[in-house]
Amino acid sequence: MTSPSSVDRVGRLRRRGFLLEWITLVWNVVGVIILAFLAITASSTALAGFGLDSLIEIGASTVVLWELSGTGEQRQRRALRLIGAAFIALAVYLLVQSAVALITQHHPAGSIGGIVWTAFTAVTMFTLASLKTRTGRALGNPVLETEGHVTFIDGLLAVTVLLGVTLNTLFGWWWADPLAGLVIVYYAVREAVEIFKPHTHK
């Protein structure tokens, strides 16, 4: 028989999981808007790719919120497949854009705003990732724990984009920007493969 204290603990952990996902969701919604503006003004492939990745992460957070609400497994699988397709589309788009930028030697403008936003995003994502992983493990919820790993990867991507934009802004290394975009291509393909693996939906 489940004790009242155990039920209260599970309730607290579930509420914490909801809060962490909502923070991630709101941050990424704001990020999409900011990154769209920064990418256009700087003509940056890396910032555009990171903005599109943030858009996909919104979908990932939504899936976890559904799962925490006890949503059906069939709906969750459908949502995950849509996210996988979005990652593939992102990879194709960035691969073409990065290749064109490298071949034509496109020089994006520097972006102090891009440096500031990606730096703050990296710190935020690493913090959220740690809290999600611990909460998911304590709750016995593999979906939340796994999404914590995705958030950690998002933090690593922020660091990659930060590096590319910083090198271009400070030293004029224009090629660092599209190379950062190619890192996101690798990540997007890897995530899509994981989503579409048969064991993912068991």
CATH architecture annotation name: Up-down Bundle
Strand segment count: 0
Order of helices and strands: HHHHHH
Mean pLDDT: 85
* CATH class group: Mainly Alpha
Q: How many helices in DSSP terms?
A: 6
In short:
This protein has 202 residues and is mainly alpha-helical. It has helices at 4-42, 45-68, 73-104, 112-139, 142-171, 176-196.
Structure, explained:
- The chain is an all-alpha fold and 202 residues long.
- It has a single domain, classed as Alpha-lytic protease prodomain-like.
- Helices cover 86% and strands 0% of the residues.
- Helix 1 packs antiparallel against helix 4, helix 2 runs antiparallel to helix 3 and helix 5 packs antiparallel against helix 6.
Question: Could you name the key traits of this structure?
Answer:
202 residues; mainly alpha; 0% strand; elongated
Q: SSE layout and pairings?
A:
Blueprint: H1 4-42, H2 45-68, H3 73-104, H4 112-139, H5 142-171, H6 176-196
Helix pairs in contact: 1-2, 1-4, 2-3, 2-5, 2-6, 3-6, 4-5, 5-6
